[in-house]
Specification:
Largest interface: A-B, 46 and 45 residues
CATH class of the largest domain in chain A: Mainly Beta
CATH topology of the largest domain in chain A: Jelly Rolls
Order of helices and strands of chain A: EEEEEEEEHHEEHHEEH
Largest sheet of chain A: 4 strands, antiparallel
Shape of chain A: globular
Strand content of chain A: 15-25%
CATH architecture of the largest domain in chain A: Sandwich
Helix content of chain A: 25-40%
Number of strands of chain A: 12
Radius of gyration of chain A: 17 Å
Distance between the termini of chain A: 25 Å
CATH superfamily of the largest domain in chain A: Jelly Rolls
Oligomer: homodimer
DNA sequence: TTTGGAAATGAACATAGGTGAATTTATTTC
DNA sequence: GAAATAAATTCACCTATGTTCATTTCCAAA
């Protein structure tokens, strides 16, 4: 794959908790995650935290930086991250018509963000978790990182809480209820979804949504 | 201003409740709102609704359509809307470097959306309302539609509830509490903010945020 | 000017999810 | 493989917000 790396592109690594970008500091480069997970978030003054995006292998971090303004939220590695770094200004021969690549990725992330507005604004705890686990599984599968009904899920229950707008205690309670119903298996950073259709129904509640 | 309208651009009108776009039906054109308000939303199967974007005068509706995929959520007029309609594919000589125009507008809407994730995920009812009223006031002011500390706000309390992820009853309670504290005046579709700084502090809770 | 429907308000009660603190189980690290 | 640290789990109790339904106020249409 090395032969596909464009000029001005090089490999970089981050350790867990290391920043890929800090608030208000102009990003000079765009990353494409090769391996590992990262997240964007915002902290409130009293310590409340909300994760606003997750970056998985294959994702660009962060498409919006190409629109030419400094990151308004920090991005931090959740695991060891290996990424391709390239100059920030619309790299990658981004054509609006190509069904893949940068713009596709950007449109996907906009749509996911909009789906999360619905989930955070209107869904119950169990529906939120269903949405999250399903979305992550589908994204991992699209990158060829799912194996049957399973995939890696290197998030702590605290991370999950900060993504779903719940408390860690309630995430724990709710995951147990979901396990009891046979909706998910989740242990030691590994997710299995025994019944995809059931989880989809729970997450979407009848709306037509594709987690892409 | 008529002289500034590009070829292939023409004026269109919508009545309240009329659709500017429907779910999954490819938009053939992009609107720039001249007058009136519209919103994008999603309904769940049991009737819960979440508004995911508001379109005010000056806004493009909807930047994402230019990325070449059908709208995933309907857009409906909240008031009488007058808009400029132009062919959908990246109109407007959109240059990435211009500090205004299409891409600026797009980046703004991405950032607002991300701010709403934080608000819906982590903020209390009063903080949510403060965020909403402040954002709307600032946007109206930037379009020259605010007068001193006041501006039009043609939303019902039901609309506000569907934007903030609350119930109409609780919106009502909370607005009254805010009135009692002298934080806002809101009556007959008109908003006045006696103390901008106080409302900002309540909305942001110490995080550095600009509602742009 | 009336009138009919929408919007706002009010009040009593219910509950999903939050809080705080302790305990147990995993996971690193040396 | 023992110690140290982080993550998950449990429990008792609490509260912000939801629910239901009635009442009042506001407007727009005739």
């Amino acid at each position: 794959m090395l032969s596909q790396i464009a000029p001005n592109t090089n490999l970089v690594f981050f350790r867990p908790h290391e920043f890929l970008a800090r608030e208000n500091i102009m990003a000079d480069s765009l990353f494409q995650i090769q391996e590992g997970w990262a997240c964007r978030y915002r902290m409130l003054a009293d310590g409340r935290r909300q994760i606003t995006a997750l970056y998985l292998p294959g994702d660009y971090c962060e498409p919006q930086w190409a629109l030419g303004r400094p990151p308004s939220q920090p991005v931090v590695a959740l695991t060891i991250v290996r990424a391709l770094k390239s100059p920030c200004r619309l790299p990658l021969g981004a054509s609006l018509d190509s069904p893949h690549g940068f713009w596709k990725s950007f449109a996907d992330s906009c749509e996911r963000q909009s789906n999360w507005l619905v989930t955070l604004g209107r869904k119950t705890a169990m529906e939120r978790l269903a949405h999250l686990l399903l979305e992550l599984f589908e994204r991992m599968r699209q990158s060829g990182l799912a194996y049957g009904q399973q995939c890696a899920l290197p998030l702590t229950q605290l991370d999950i809480a900060d993504m779903t707008g719940l408390t860690p205690v309630h995430v724990n309670r709710t995951l147990q209820a979901m396990r009891a119903k046979g909706l998910v298996e989740l242990q030691s950073k590994w997710l299995r979804i025994p019944d995809l259709a059931a989880l989809r129904e729970l997450a979407a509640l009848g709306t037509v949504e594709t987690f892409a």
